[in-house]
Amino acid sequence: MTNSEPSSWFYHFSFDEFFILPVTTAFFLAELGILVAATSVAFVLRSRNLLHQTYKLFFQALIFECISLFFMCITYSVYANNGVGMPLLKYLSQVCRQMANMTFLILLLLLSKGFTITRGRLSLCGMTKLSFFVFSYAIISTSMLIWEEKVFDPALVTYVSESLPAYVIAVLRLVAWVWFLRSILITCNKYAQKRKFYASFSFFMTFWFWSGPVVLVFANFVLDNWVREEVVSGVECAVVAYGFLVFLILTWPSTANQNFPYHVRTTQVGDANYPQNNYEV
C-alpha cells in the first residue's frame, strides 16, 4: 500500500512515519543555518585568541548532527521512492546522532567544571571520572543501536526507546545532570563573577538533560504506535537544535552579551587556574 503520487515525499511511508522526511529536511536546513552562524563566530573568536577547546567541541557536535541529518534525508528520500531505503546509511546517521549527543554532553560537563572558563585543565581525578562516564555512555549507546538491529522483531511496530539500553541512557542523562549542577555550584563558589553565565547556562541546559528521559517516557507510555516514530524523531531533532542554539547564543561574541563566558586568551591555556577577571589577564 502506498500514498499519493509516486514522486511524493510520502509515497512509501507508513502512517507513523508520514511526515518524517519533510520534518527531517527542515531540521537539516535549520542545523545548517546554525553551523554557518557558528562558523562565523569561530572566526571571530579565533581572531581574538578566544577559540577554546570547548567551542571546538561544540563545533564538532554540530558537524556530527548535520551529517546525521544529511544521511537521514538521503535514506528517507530513497525510502519514499522504493520502500526500502538505505539501511546502512540510516544506521550511520544514528551513529552520528549519538556522537553529536555524546560530544555535546562532554562539552556541558567540561564547562560546568569551569574548563576554558575558569581553569586551564582538570584534575587527574576529574579527568578519570569523566573518562569513565563517557566510556560507559558510549558503550550503552552502541548497545542501544545493536539492540534495535538484532533484538527487535521487524514484524512489530517498535522504537529504539523501548530497548533496555535506552532506559540506561536515560538514567545516565539524569546522573550527568546532577553532576553538571554540582560542578556548577562548586565553580560559582570559587568564581563569583561567572555566576550570571552559569545561572543562564544551567537553567537552559537543564531542559536538554531532562529531554531524553521525558521523551522516552512519552514515547513508551503515552504516544500511540501510529504516531510515535515521526513525533519522537521530530522532538529529538528539536531538542538537539535547541541545545546548539542556546550554546551559540550564550557564546555570541558581542558586547551586548553579558553571558559571554570566555575572557582568557588561548595563549594562557597552560594556567591551572585562570585569572578571575579581565583585568588580571
UniProtKB/TrEMBL annotation:
Look up keyword Membrane and say if it applies.
yes
Q: Which UniProt keywords apply?
A: Membrane, Transmembrane, Transmembrane helix
Name recorded for this polypeptide: GPR180/TMEM145 transmembrane domain-containing protein
Q: Which Pfam families match?
A: GPR180-TMEM145_TM
Q: Which domain of life is it from?
A: Eukaryota
Q: Where is the GPR180/TMEM145 transmembrane domain?
A: 35-247
Keyword set includes Transmembrane helix: yes
PANTHER family, sorted: INTIMAL THICKNESS RECEPTOR-RELATED, TRANSMEMBRANE PROTEIN 145
- UniProt organism field: Steinernema carpocapsae
One Gene Ontology term from the biological process aspect of the record:
response to pheromone
